[in-house]
Structures are given as structure tokens and as C-alpha cells.
Amino acid sequence: AGADWAINILGVGVLTPYAGWAASGMPLRPEGTWILAGFGLLFGALYPLTQLYQFEEDETRGDRTLARLLGIGPSLGVSLAAAVLAFAAFGRGLELAGPTRQARWALAMAGVLWVLVLAVWLATHRRLTGEEHKRGMYRALTAWAVTDAAVVLAFAI
User: Fold this and answer.
1) What pLDDT, in 10s, does the model give residues 85-133?
2) How is residue 125 annotated by DSSP?
3) Which residue, among 76, 71, 49, has the nearest Cα to 134 in the 3D structure?
4) Please, which of 42, 68, 150, 153 could form a disulfide with 86 given CB 3.0 to 4.6 Å?
5) How far apart, in whole angstroms, are the C-alpha atoms of residue 20 and residue 63?
6) Which residues, 6+ apart, have CB-to-CB distance to 84 below 8 Å?
7) What's the whole-model pTM score?
């Protein structure tokens, strides 16, 4: 438990976007490194959330997942911390790129969405069913999609 989290942060969160960047032929500038770090951290925020809705099922089977190791509340706390760090990395990349007001706004709105999704989930997690945790995961996936668009807009403006 936990090794899968680290592998996914690096493999899916960092190396997958890097592969796309490398395929573009564009050099990886310092702001790009911060973007990749941000997506790694953001995947670190998302991954534990994918385990929460099946927490009881995993417990019954004896599966050793990160969420089971930490518990639901601490998993949400780790996700919130990773999301905050992800947006700090995006923000640093944006500062290096020379931000516009619109770029800052796009990134800030995506960050606020993540905080809202995770803070509400964290505040209510004790009374949620597996199905409600699943809906929380889908809200986080929506926040991820908004973040993808915000990062593209922020760095393309």
C-alpha cells in the first residue's frame, strides 16, 4: 500500500504528460518542469480518491490499498494537501512563464474548485456511503478536467 500511489504519481502524473511534451519537439523549459510536477502532484491528489468508494469492499477482501492504510479522512487530507501543492507548482510555472491576469484567473478558479470538492468531502466523509464517495470521485474527475483546460488556457494566453 502506497507504492502504487508513488508509481502512479511518477508514471501517470509526470511521465505521461512528459511523453506528450517530448513528442511535440518543444524544449522543456523551467515552467514546463513545474507543470509536470503539478500534474504529478495532482495525480497524487486524485489517486487515493479512486479507492474510497470501494473501501468496505477492499476491507472485506483484505486488499491493502493506500486508502485502507490511511483511512478515509486522512486519505482525503493527503489528497487536499497534494492538490494544494499541485497548484503551488502550477503557480510557480505560471510566474516563470510571465502570467497574464486571465491566466492567473483560470488557474485560480480550477484551484478553488479542487479545494471546494475536497473540503466538502472531507467535512462530510463520516456519513457518506460508498455510492456517495463514488460521486465525490466523479466530482474530483470533473475538477481534473477543468484543471486541464485551465492549465492549457493559462499557459497559452
Assistant:
1) 999 999 999 999 988 899 999 999 999 999 999 999 999 999 999 999 9
2) G
3) 49
4) 42
5) 33
6) 115
7) 0.92
